[in-house]
Design goal:
22 strands, six-stranded antiparallel beta sheet, 454 residues, alpha+beta, four-stranded antiparallel beta sheet
Length: 454
Amino acid sequence: VEHVENEFARLFSGVPSRKELAGRFFGKTLPFQGKISFDGDTVLWATSEIQTYWNSRIYSEYSSNGWITGSSDKVRIGPGHAPIPPQESFNRIPIDQNVQVGFDTSNLFSGGNLQWVTRPIEAEILQPKQFEIDMYDLSEDDKFPLEVQELAKQIRYLVNEAHLVVGESEMDKLPRRVAEISKLLPSDMVIKDILPKYKEPGPSVGSGTPVRIDSLVLARKNPIASDIIAWEFIKDVTINESYSMGSLVTNVTDRDLRESSTNYSGFVKDHYLQLPNSLPTRVVELALQLTAEADTPLDKAFLIQSFLRSDKFEYSQDIDVPPVNSDGVDHFLFETRRGYSDYFASSMVVMLRASGVPSRLAVGYAPGVLDEETGMWSVFDSDSHAWVQVYFSGHGWIDFQPTSKWDIARRNPDTPSHVDRVDLGPSESQINSNLLPGDPCDDPNDPRYVEELC
């Protein structure tokens, strides 16, 4: 029922209704859609001393048709239940926020890494990936991360070709091989299940006794810092009701992000470097060309963000749905170059992943408009938005803004006063003006030159 409800609400969200409903619906799927429109209603009133996006949901899995929320567990938070799970929060500062909603909703709109909230809630936590490796069929291997593909080769060797122990019985082979396989696995991976073939009853082997491994299910361990993809209220918040929360918002500098480790965990790589095999090659080639001069993930993010914010692309809500059997990002980048934030943000995430940078799609609302006298942020229906979050070890997820209609996501570009700025590397504006000057279409030898775009 929940699946049908989510699908119906998303697919028909652009169809006029006899009853006006404020607030955009962010379900477990985010398909590439055509024409959309918003009204001028205020959907949220908020107090926050620092400008933030109002996050409703995270999407981790990309397909040519749009985005899917990965498999998750729901954990109830509050008295008598679990505490709020830890999140990566280097260089973040605590602030208090209050949100009054202009529509009935079960969604909590968070302004950072949530620390406390005044209403009972549930956290939707992304599950680790599992991989079923068939010992005799390699056809599904290309869907695995590269690390798992290599593991599959080694495991098959142990199971199918490794030396036999003299005098070893059929009953002893399986546990020995399982023990050998366990030694191959990285520290964050375990054997979840073994699916064996069975031998017919015989004098030495009982009925149903496993005598060989048919397939093996591997699973990542849960990370220490939970990956929270959505918050929901146990009881809906109704129109004009409010809630207060404490959040940790980033105060990170460009230097901090450049120094962040790129030794990503298996969990992060499994979920946030994922791309479908159907992704057109020219999307990957464009990503690699745009980031050819970048030394760090931050610089790659700057370059791709600036490319999408350039005048080569047009913001428009009046567009057609991508053609059947096309890839939404490919169609946007190379055919129309017109779209709204879903298309801009999706393109940046896909190109970042193609260049080896873990990233994901966030949806909710842009910060809104601040009333200087009251200190209140008014968030409108038209602030419904999708943006990009890039992963930096220790710091967690940092916002980026590839859609030119909105200002670049707030982040502290400065460094502590005792740090010499000469050694910090280029800022975003310096990257644009110094590292890669001019229009790439002026020079076919420019690493950013792409024939289809120029």
